[in-house]
């Protein structure tokens, strides 16, 4: 069998969480029950189609479920350890460390929201080094995310809680590819047989192209679909944000459809800002907030113009490809 039937439990999980809106625990339990039923009938169905005895297939189904339970228990050990360690961190934060971190970031940022976000991003990168994904989020949610919400409120800048969590979690995950720890960089270096630090630095340079996205989570809550209730609106935001991120990648990597000229860099950054912050552009143009999406046309026009400018240079071969040849 192709295995596409394993999408049924995943669909069940999404249905429970999004449509029925059950708790995560109940949704996961129901999805696991559906998976267990699939595992029970999978082997007998295969045996029936292949005209083999049903009895051994039923026995194999029970063995598969038992092996799955044992495998799940083994995999939960690392999660349990991370959760236990996170409990200690949460306890320390509750004793006052969380307020201390907020005060430190507030003093260092001197009331500047942009500087506060940069400091928080650096702190998330440092704290997230060497931690697994689950532990990274728990630590970020306990230490740096509340600092963004608290300090932003002190400066009269309201930050949605989801935006703050995604911001910190994003940079916490980037720590896996940030030297000198960079666990993902070490794994990639082992595969590529390259120097770990050099691999981490190169990977971090590639990561820069997405560094603008978490900042936009803070300043443009449309990106996390905050107060967005229309499918068409959500799809429009998604497509335009992808285009804006693409423009930023072209600016930071120095390549679009051809190698960028130095004077094209500001245009790519303008496209990025327009597609990421249509509300700000609309405000500058004196347009109503509800009409902010019309500014996308400006960004797309500049993006199209850049394509037409670079199109005659498409045949140029990158230096890296020349060396490989």
Give structural notes.
The protein is mostly helical and 325 residues long. The protein has 2 domains: 83-210, no CATH class; 220-325. Helix content is 74%, strand content 0%. The protein contains 14 helices and no strands. The longest helix is centred in the N-terminal third of the chain and has 56 residues, at 54-109. The two termini are 42 Å apart. Residues 321-325 have low confidence and may be disordered.
Question: Could you list some keywords that capture this structure?
Answer:
globular; single chain; 14 helices; disordered C terminus; 325 residues
Distance between the termini: 42 Å
What's the number of structural domains? Answer: 2
H and E string: HHHHHHHHHHHHHH
Helix content: over 70%
What value does the Rg take, in angstroms?
A: 25 Å
| Low-confidence parts | 321-325
| Number of separate helices | 14
Structural class: mainly alpha
* Mean pLDDT figure: 81
Summarize the structure.
With 325 residues, this protein is an all-alpha fold. It has two domains: 83-210, no CATH class; 220-325.
Secondary structure layout:
Elements lengths: L6 H14 L3 H26 L4 H56 L3 H15 L5 H22 L6 H14 L8 H10 L3 H12 L4 H8 L11 H23 L11 H12 L1 H7 L11 H15 L8 H6 L1
